[in-house]
Amino acid sequence: MATARIKVGDVSLCYALSGPENAPIVCLNHCFGADHQYWDDHLPAFDGFRVLRHDARGHGYSDVPPGPYSLSMMAADLAGLLDALKIKTVHLCGVSMGGMISQTVALNYPERVASLALINTTPEYDQDQLQGWRDRADLVSRNGIQAVHAALMSRWFTDDAAAARSPGYVYMEETFAKFAPEAFGAVSAAVIDLNTTARLSEIKVPAMVIATPDDPGVPTETSQRMADRLGVEPYWLKPARHLATLEHPERFNRLIREFLTEVARG
Predict the structure, then answer these.
(1) For the chain, N or C: smaller number of CB within 10 Å?
(2) What is the CATH number of the domain that holds 68?
(3) H-assigned helices in 123-248
(4) Number of H helices, E strands in the chain
(5) Which domain holds residue 157?
(6) Count of CB atoms within 10 A of residue 254's CB?
(7) C-alpha to C-alpha distance for 54 and 93, rounded to whole angstroms
(8) Which runs of consecutive H residues, i.e. helices, occur in the chain?
(9) Could you tell me the pTM of the whole model?
């Protein structure tokens, strides 16, 4: 699928826009260390919709400006991208970091969001989790991406996915290996900035939460609390770790398709 680049504020963003021109628009936001191709195996779920994907700042073929970044900055990037493409509203979908950005967009630019799907993401971190982000960023700054590569892959995927070298596993293995060390630190600073729990009840659009009980990055009670604040029941994908959609693409595709079809009907 062809991509393009567009200047938004201080950053040039790589994006892909596909699907029927007059259809409702779904905006897909990838996880930390990935790029817009995260969603390749999920595109069948959005057949009949217009689909916008982009590489967040620091990722893929978008610029890597000096850090630190913030979630408000990355949400403004997305709002600016919508402005540049003359898109008023989107059905917003984000996984992990992309879900953090999506929450921030829904809170800071509520008029741009028609619905919100949050996947394996969190509204907050405890002190131990925050220290884990700081420690990983420090390790990468000293020793490069390979210093954390294996540990993060084991957080993101089950042993079965690793042993089978599933397509999602191979994609993340290859893509994360190319992640710039300076981007790791800059984006980690944004993630550490996360704290939306108290404001989630302000989000009034239709929402869904997809999580997994064995996510090492998002405790089950945190996923449940996020869903409660949004007034929905979570969907659980298992067995999986943090990147559950890449372990169960067909099941995720069915869930998101059902949600969007219902929302689009109004």
Answers:
(1) C
(2) 3.40.50.1820
(3) 127-143, 146-156, 159-164, 167-177, 181-192, 220-230, 244-247
(4) 10, 8
(5) 4-265
(6) 12
(7) 12
(8) 71-84, 97-108, 127-143, 146-156, 159-164, 167-177, 181-192, 220-230, 244-247, 249-265
(9) 0.97
Q: Quote the CA–CA distance of 119 and 164 in Å, as a whole number.
A: 23
32 touches 26 (CB < 8 A): no
pLDDT in tens, 197-220: 999 999 999 999 999 999 999 999
The token pair at 191 is 């993630």
Backbone angles phi, psi at 24, to 5 degrees: -55, 145
Rounded to an integer, what distance in angstroms lies between the CA atom of residue 9 and that of residue 201? 30
pLDDT at residue 1, rounded to an integer: 63
Question: Using CA atoms in the order 61, 64, 70, 75, what is the torsion angle rounded to 10 degrees?
Answer: -30
| Span 258-262, average pLDDT | 96
Total domains present in the chain:
1
Q: What are phi and psi of 122, to 5 degrees?
A: -145, 155
Amino acid identity at 235: Y
**pLDDT tens digit sequence for 90-117:** 999 999 999 999 999 999 999 999 999 9
